[in-house]
User: Fold CD-NTase-associated protein 15 domain-containing protein from Xaviernesmea oryzae.
Amino acid sequence: MWSLFQRKTQLLIIVTASILAAWGLEAVWFWYFGEQTTPLKWISFVISIVGVVMVAVAELLWFRLARIMPLMQTKMFPDLNGEWVGHLKSTWINPETGTTLPPIPTSLKISQTFFTTSVTLKTGESFSKSTRVFLEPDYENRRYRVWYSYNNDPQAQFWHRSSQHEGVAYLDLDWDADRNRLTGTYYTARKTSGDIDVRRSQ
Assistant:
């Protein structure tokens, strides 16, 4: 979520919170000790405190509040935390038979905090883990996309026909159509691709 703010907005939030906190500490100090001081004396200390507090509050409260007030999700980014199950459909065509593979049962897990998002995907033969994630909201149409790059590690018994590789994928959520369905496409370094269709199970 934090990455969706522009840099100047992030800086403005941190600076504003630090100044307000410094003024607050100055007032408390004067009230308790009766000594006049200046906000500048507190700035370095306050910046550290504000950073810790902001992280703690955002991590602990953001999604709890967003689940109660869905408007927060549409204005920032939906809560995608959880297990998603469905299938992959590869576009690869067997050169010997001219046929495609049947849908591959798939489970996908998204772990999302205010500051980070990670995606893991499992099939019967391999495990993929995201290396980078980028959130792309389309607020006007209330559609939200997760782009991610990943590393795929097949089980050793399948290495003879499925090597380790890297890839890129995206997952789309249409807020108005179905908040518990993700569809998308993946592309691999092996020059293959396919479609993803999963639904949130928990």
Summary: Strands lie at 82-90, 104-112, 117-122, 126-138, 143-154, 165-174, 178-188, 193-200. The two ends are 21 Å apart (CA to CA). The mean pLDDT is 81. The chain has two domains: 2-68, 82-200.
